[in-house]
């Protein structure tokens, strides 16, 4: 069964669709179109292909036809069945044949590919192919995209069974069926029809649509007053497969622009004073105001039998308060609820969420980079791993298990009392103390005497701390990791000196001091041991040739984050891994918690993600480490022009990539300096993965001094020798491709060039397709005709690029040296204006064709001039005649043989302007001939 639906939500792996009958269906990501499925399979099998975005092929709020594939009923009969749908044209249009098509027929097709002159689309009809030209597509479409289209030319065996289509906007209006003799199978969901009402039977109306019986729900019209024999317009929802009745929607349908405001209410809004109207099919229907859609409540979801009985509603039909739970776009109905749990439920709407709000939520799922949480019905969130604590946790499940309840923050300092226990995460650890952070950025300090000697703690570990002291004014929180049962309260010993003589007081004080020194002796020995260990570590760091033990804490695209002895942070940059082969990923073989032996080269400060209130530091210290010594690349290496280097990709952009040369130096590699094959350059953005090893040569080094610091801008290349020489073919990056400016390209080695319109192709033909192809390909081959400094004159003709003998050209190439007066040649329209045409008729040669223009009403010459401008859009070839070889402001006077009788020649107009003839018409603003 095929029926019309509205896309209400786009998720990562499926679409949610509102269907007639207050049913919600799902469209899996593999049931969009055949082309989209192939793109998915290619992205999973090939590493350099990105996953296509589902929101780029469908529009939220648009209506499409869907085919029901499966209906699954739950064990609980109260719940609605699950409906699996498909919007693939091969499934939706499977019943159509070539004979089913008719002019202006509305079809829903999928884009297969983008060609030179238009888009190839899949109609889903056997042995029939569709084509949408660029002029009828309203922009470039995406492969796999589902679009609305109407038939403009029927397919025929002579044309290869190709149907020509024109795109129809999702905003409408859709074409209306005007042929009353079409077959029932040709009436598809979404088509516009006219019908006459034959019977009104609330809440339905029966109609006659062409020669078929039809039915519509009056609630889609907001229960407007209708009568028999009234002509109405509607949209086909579906055709019943057994009774062959056409079901229509007589009201407005949602569109992408009106989707957000289609209903007056939103989900979980409160509705007051709704009035009961009648029962229908286990539903209670309520009116929600004049012009507003109807609301309904399922009988099984009523709060009590006596509360909403038929007798009670007859006496008082007004319900004071209800809550919106769902919006049904295809039925124009609002689902309500009167349950106390739903009405009293605390709901947070997305537009009410503000930065800094704290919510209590449930953990839904743990993933590698964070965890998903559910805040309330209709609102969920995601907590990144970097926001779980100031320090990176080793595993998200260490914080909370899935489906358990968590709080966005613990109590504030003013609400903390000594003796309370809270869970926090270790931020930093030294020999004297540890800093612990809680979920609301409250931090506390644990001194070494409050840390159990038999326990080992590391940065990122979740610990339970007991509050010892809390000073809210000074924002200080003193914690302990010891349990209360193991705490030994030290009693302060104070000498009683009042009853002792002076000599005995001195003896007592002396004995107390001796006892205190004896008690501190083992502590002093421990301090000496710790100082000796610290000195050994310092000696190791000062001598880079010695190896230190390290453990990998985490890995990313550019470095290994390691923990050295004593809990100190360090990193092994990708440039310090060692000797690697070109095209490999050096960091791919390392895993977290792997043990390493590294050489400490130095240290640097990195800005912390958050401000640590206890330590009052905005920077964290990291050790620069290397797996080999001497290191493969020194930290402060100087680079010179022509030096061979090994770099590692940091980030790949559209036209260039940034490359790590050392932990402190980044270089730029433009794709133009990567290869001379344009096909290879178009794939580089997907092939150059972060961390990939590349060999290159330093092209330029620019020294920049800024605020007493020195920086170096380094440009790399993989090409050998100079490539910008006359007579050679090079690859260029298209900057501009338009009839006004021709094709402007950026070339290797900082050069740029221009190919005029007459140098784009050998044959005389319109250039709109050629210019569009240049913009789409981005990288093209071009031939260097002339080189003057960093400016080049280019040609894209195949005869110059590949030495192919062209078809006999109509006119020879014109240059400044071969230009003669009264030469007739073919040029291309660069731009058109009400009084003149700008034409490119040779290499670097532009001219102006003056046209007739006057203020006389009904002038026949003006009409022919306007017709001429319509016949020659920019990029069209025209035949012109050179009137003079002397240019005025870079433009040569030209004339066209087909307009010799329409006005003055260009030469006379120039003479009139030079002599300031009072009879010459006033110039236009922006006219190239005006002074």
TrEMBL record:
GO terms for biological process: rRNA processing. It comes from the Eukaryota. Residues 1-88, 419-482 form the S1 motif domain. The lineage of its organism: Eukaryota, Metazoa, Ecdysozoa, Arthropoda, Chelicerata. Gene3D superfamilies: Nucleic acid-binding proteins (2.40.50.140). Pfam families: S1, S1_RRP5. PANTHER family: PROGRAMMED CELL DEATH PROTEIN 11 PRE-RRNA PROCESSING PROTEIN RRP5, PROTEIN RRP5 HOMOLOG. SUPFAM superfamilies: Nucleic acid-binding proteins. GO terms for molecular function: RNA binding. GO terms for cellular component: small-subunit processome. PROSITE patterns: S1. This is S1 motif domain-containing protein.
């Amino acid at each position: 069964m095929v029926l019309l639906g509205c896309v209400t939500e786009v998720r990562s792996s499926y679409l949610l669709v509102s269907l007639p009958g207050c049913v919600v269906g799902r469209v899996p990501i593999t049931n969009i179109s055949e082309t989209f499925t192939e793109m998915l399979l290619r992205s999973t099998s090939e590493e350099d292909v990105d996953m296509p975005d589902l929101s780029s092929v469908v529009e939220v709020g648009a209506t499409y036809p869907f085919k029901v594939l499966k209906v699954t009923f739950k064990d609980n009969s109260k719940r609605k069945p699950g409906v699996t749908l498909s919007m693939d044209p091969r499934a939706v249009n499977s019943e159509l044949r070539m004979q089913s098509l008719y002019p202006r027929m509305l079809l829903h097709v999928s884009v297969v590919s983008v060609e030179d002159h238009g888009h190839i689309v899949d109609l889903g009809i056997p042995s029939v192919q569709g084509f949408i030209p660029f002029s009828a597509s309203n922009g470039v479409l995406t492969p796999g995209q589902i679009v609305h289209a109407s038939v403009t030319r029927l397919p025929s065996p002579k044309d290869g069974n190709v149907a020509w289509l024109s795109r129809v906007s999702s905003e409408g209006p859709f074409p209306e069926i005007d042929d009353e003799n079409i077959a029932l199978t040709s009436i598809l969901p979404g088509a516009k029809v006219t019908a006459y009402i034959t019977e009104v039977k609330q809440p339905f109306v029966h109609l006659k649509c062409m020669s078929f019986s039809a039915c519509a729900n009056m609630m889609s019209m907001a229960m407007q007053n209708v009568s028999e024999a009234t002509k109405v317009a509607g949209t086909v929802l579906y055709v019943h497969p057994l009774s062959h009745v056409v079901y229509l929607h007589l009201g407005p349908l949602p569109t992408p622009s009106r989707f957000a405001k289609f209903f007056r209410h939103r989900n979980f809004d409160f509705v007051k004073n709704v009035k009961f109207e009648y029962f229908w099919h286990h539903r209670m229907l309520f009116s929600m105001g004049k012009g507003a859609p109807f609301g309904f409540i399922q009988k099984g979801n009523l709060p009590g039998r006596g509360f909403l009985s038929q007798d009670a509603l007859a006496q008082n039909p007004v319900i004071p308060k209800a809550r919106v739970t769902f919006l049904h776009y295809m039925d124009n109905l609002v689902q309500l609820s009167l349950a106390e749990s739903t009405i009293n439920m605390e709901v947070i709407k997305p537009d009410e969420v503000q930065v800094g709000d704290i919510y209590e939520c449930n953990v839904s799922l743990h993933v590698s980079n964070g965890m998903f949480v559910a805040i309330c019905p209709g609102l969920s969130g995601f907590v990144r791993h970097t926001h779980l604590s100031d320090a990176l946790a080793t595993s998200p499940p260490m914080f909370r298990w899935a489906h358990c309840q968590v709080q966005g923050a613990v109590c504030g300092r003013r609400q903390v009392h000594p003796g309370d226990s809270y869970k926090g995460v270790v931020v930093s650890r030294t020999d004297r103390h540890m800093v612990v952070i809680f979920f609301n950025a409250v931090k506390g300090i644990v001194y070494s005497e409050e840390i159990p000697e038999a326990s080992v703690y590391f940065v990122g570990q979740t610990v339970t701390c007991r509050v010892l002291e809390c000073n809210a004014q000074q924002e200080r929180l003193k914690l302990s990791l010891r349990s209360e049962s193991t705490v030994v309260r030290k009693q302060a010993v104070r000498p009683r000196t009042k009853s002792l003589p002076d000599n005995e007081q001195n003896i007592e004080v002396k004995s107390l001091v001796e006892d205190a020194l004896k008690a501190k002796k083992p502590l002093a020995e421990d301090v000496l041991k710790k100082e000796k260990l610290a000195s050994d570590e310092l000696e190791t760091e000062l001598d880079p040739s010695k190896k230190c033990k390290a453990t990998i804490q985490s890995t990313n695209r550019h470095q290994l984050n390691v923990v050295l002895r004593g809990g100190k942070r360090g990193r092994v940059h990708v440039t310090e891994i060692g000797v690697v082969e070109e095209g490999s990923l050096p960091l791919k073989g390392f895993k977290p918690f792997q043990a390493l032996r590294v050489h400490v080269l130095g240290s640097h400060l990195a800005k912390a993600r958050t401000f640590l209130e206890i330590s009052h530091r905005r920077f964290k210290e990291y050790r620069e480490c290397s797996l080999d010594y001497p290191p493969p690349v020194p930290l402060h290496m100087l680079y010179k022009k022509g030096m061979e280097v090994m770099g590692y990709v940091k980030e790949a952009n559209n036209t260039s990539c940034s490359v790590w040369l050392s932990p402190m130096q980044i270089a730029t590699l433009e794709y133009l300096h990567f290869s001379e094959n344009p096909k290879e350059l178009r794939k580089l953005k997907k092939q150059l993965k972060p961390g990939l090893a590349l060999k290159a040569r330093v092209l330029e080094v620019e020294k920049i001094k800024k605020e007493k610091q020195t920086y170096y801008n380094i440009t790399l290349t993989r090409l050998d020798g100079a490539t910008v020489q006359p007579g050679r073919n090079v690859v260029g990056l298209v900057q501009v491709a338009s009839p006004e400016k021709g094709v402007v390209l950026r070339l290797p080695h900082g050069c740029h060039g221009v190919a005029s319109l007459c140098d784009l192709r050998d044959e005389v033909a319109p250039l709109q397709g050629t210019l569009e192809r240049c913009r789409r390909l981005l990288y093209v081959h071009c031939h260097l005709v002339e080189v003057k400094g960093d400016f080049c004159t280019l040609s894209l003709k195949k005869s110059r690029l590949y030495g192919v003998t062209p078809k006999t050209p109509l006119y020879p190439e014109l240059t400044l040296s071969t230009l003669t007066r009264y030469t007739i040649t073919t040029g291309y329209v660069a731009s058109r204006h009400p009084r003149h045409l700008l034409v490119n008729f040779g290499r670097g040669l532009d001219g102006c064709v003056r046209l007739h223009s006057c203020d006389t009403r009904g002038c026949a010459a003006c009409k022919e001039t306007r017709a001429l401008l319509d016949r020659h859009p920019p990029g069209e070839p025209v035949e012109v005649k050179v009137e003079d070889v002397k240019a005025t402001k870079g433009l040569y006077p030209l004339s066209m043989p087909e307009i010799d009788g329409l006005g003055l020649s260009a030469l006379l107009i120039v003479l009139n302007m030079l002599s300031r003839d009072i009879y010459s018409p006033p110039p236009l603003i922006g006219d190239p001939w005006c002074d």
